[in-house]
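From: lab user (bench 3)
To: helpdesk
Subject: output format question, protein + adenosine-5'-triphosphate

Hello, I'm new to running complex predictions and I'm not sure whether the block I got back is the full result or only part of it. Here's what I submitted:
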Amino acid sequence: MSAIGLKDVRKSYGSVEVISSIDLDIEQGEFVVFVGPSGCGKSTLLRMIAGLEGIDGGTLSIDGVVANDIAPARRGIAMVFQSYALYPHMSVYENLAFSLRIAHVDKAEIDRRVRNAAAMLQLEPYLSRRPRALSGGQRQRVAIGRAIVREAKVFLFDEPLSNLDAALRVATRIEIAKLKERLPDTTMIYVTHDQVEAMTLADRIVVLNGGNVEQVGRPVELYESPANLFVAGFIGSPAMNFLPCRLEHQGERTLVQIDGAEQTAIAFGSGGRSGAEAGTLGVRPESLHIAEAGAALITGMVELVEHLGEVTILYVAAGLGQPVLAKLSKTQDFAKGDRVSLSAASTDLYAFDASGDALPRLG
Ligand SMILES: Nc1ncnc2c1ncn2[C@@H]1O[C@H](COP(=O)(O)OP(=O)(O)OP(=O)(O)O)[C@@H](O)[C@H]1O
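Helpdesk reply: Thanks, we reran it on our side. This is the complete output you should expect:
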C-alpha cells in the first residue's frame, strides 16, 4: 500500500486541461521531487494532494483510502509554502504552536512538540522573536517547523527555498536533507525549479511536462537513462547537446551516424525495427573531449569561452543553428575563433528516434 496513490488523476481550469491522467505511487518515507518547466502543473498537482485544489477525475488515495473528498485538515498532510505564510503578530513559539492549539492539543504536549521541532531546526534562540526579526532562512525553518509539530504523515514543499539567496539556499537545503534523515517514516513531496535540489534531495524525481509525467526515476537513473528527448534535455546542466542524425535500423541493432562525423557509426538496440529514419544523437557537455586526429564527432569554431575555474565551457559553432557546449577540464586553453574537434566515448552517447523516444543501449 502506497502512502500517496494517484490513479488517472486529472484537472482542468475551464476548457484547459492542466493535469492529464497522472498515475503515480509514492511509498511511505519516500522523498519525491516534482520538476518540470514553468506552468507544467507541479504546484497544481501538489495542491490537489493537499486538498487545496479539487480533483476533476481519477482517484487520490492516502494510505490506501480514497481521499478525493477528504477535507485538507483531515488528510494528515502539512504544506510548506515558498512565502512561509507565518503570522506576523505571533512569536516563533506561537507560530509553531498555533495549529496544535486550534486542534486542542494538551498544553504540555504542545510545549514538547514545539521544543522538539525548534531543537531539530536550531530555532531555540529565536522562540520569543516575531517573524520580522528573523532572516529569510530562519523564517523558512519556522514554516518547516510548523509541519513538524503537526507530526503529519506527509509533508508537501512548494519551492520552499526560492526566496532565499544562494548561500542560504544551500544551507537550508542541507537542513531539509537532515530533516529527511531524522524523519525516515515521513513521506515528503517537494516542488522545485532547481536541478541541484532535485538531484540531491530526491529518492525519486517525477519529470512533468504539460500536465503529463514524462519519466519517474532515481536522480542518477534520469541522468544516465533518460526515456526521451524531453527528459534528456531537462535533466543536467548545461543541457545535453542534440545533433541531428540518421538512424539505420538493422533488425537487432540501429546504426547512428551524424553528417560529417569521423567517429565511427555508433550501434544502439533497435527494438526489432527495420528501415531508416531521421533521429537525434545526444551528448552531454561533460562527456565531450578534444578528439584525436581522425576521430571527431563534431568539428566547429569556438564562439565563446567561459572560464569557470574548475572547468572551461566552450560554445562551438558547428552549423547546427545553436552552439554545441563542451565542458572541459580547466587545463584546456582555448580562445574565440579556434577550430576544435570534439568526440565522446560511445557509451556516453544517446540516440532518440523521430518521435523522441530513447533507443536502448546494446549490452
Ligand atoms: N486558478 C487557476 N485558474 C486558471 N489556470 C490556472 C490556475 N492555476 C494554475 N493555472 C494554470 O495551470 C497551469 C499549471 O500551473 P502550475 O502553477 O501548477 O504550474 P507550475 O508547474 O507549478 O509552474 P511554476 O513552475 O511556474 O510555478 C498553468 O498553465 C497555469 O497558468
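A quick orientation on your result: Residues 239-352 form a domain with the OB fold (Dihydrolipoamide Acetyltransferase, E2P) fold (CATH 2.40.50.140). Let us know if anything else is unclear.
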